[in-house]
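During the practical work, I worked with a single protein chain and the tokens that describe its fold, as given directly below.
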Amino acid sequence: MNQSNLTRGYSTAVISAAILSTTAIFIRHLTEEYDLPPMILAFWRDGFVAITLLVVLGGVRPALLKVERRQLGYLAGYGFMLAIFNSLWTLSVALNGAAVATVLAYSSAGFTALLGWWLLNERLDGAKLLAVGVSLSGCALVAGAFDPSAWNSNLAGIVMGLLSGLSYATYTLLGRNASQRGLSPWTSLIYIFSFATVYLMLFNLAWSPDEFFHLGHAAAGWGVLFLLAAGPTVLGFGLYNLSLTYLPSSVVNLIVTMEPAFTAVFAYFLLHERLTSTQIAGSLILLGSIVFLRIYEGRVAAFQAQRIESAGV
């Protein structure tokens, strides 16, 4: 991996984390202001993402809408994992609360490092494991999960949260594998969100068939929901998938653990929520772990380039 790809990958992943962090603000507004059921929100969000990508790509790069038939089964499975992650995340928040659910979801950093080493032959060394541990600690501080009262949930809730982390890790690995298959990140995105929409429709038909049009005639609510999909979701997930074309899945997942820190900062400025000294400390720890990993990966890349150059002499 050369320095140029490292720089592109890190900058793209950081921007992705910043953009994705705003989704929590949109979701909070929709669930509190309109009492929109989370699973229904997930369905419409994914559906609007698919429609937005269809319109934009169809007008700008229609070639990206084409995919070989042999890839459809893979993309269907990839979309199913996205739907599973959305569902598990929603249930984890309901059972554990936002703080604990956030920390459990970002257990994906550890899962991704281990699974990437096992399944994709990605490097796993002491530096990366250290970065995983430090980033999870920072995430816990930002989410307030060191407060014992935040963990007063049942075993089912904890298991659900860990499964959300595992499914997020699997989603990340599939994204890395999609780039290795030669699929454009934007092509992958429209297909997986389209498949996820179908799966979530089936989930909701089974659990809450009468809630699909919960927003009714609330035009402002529909507008916020569409903005959530067409803005931060499309750009955030698109850049996330793009970063996977430059970096190993474990590195990208580690970088995106900065999302809770960005959310805390945006909530402070936009929702006037108090940013505590603990959250600031956690944000700095998260940033430090990413800077450490970037410097380390840069040195490894430089060393490998030097070895290749020496071998060629």
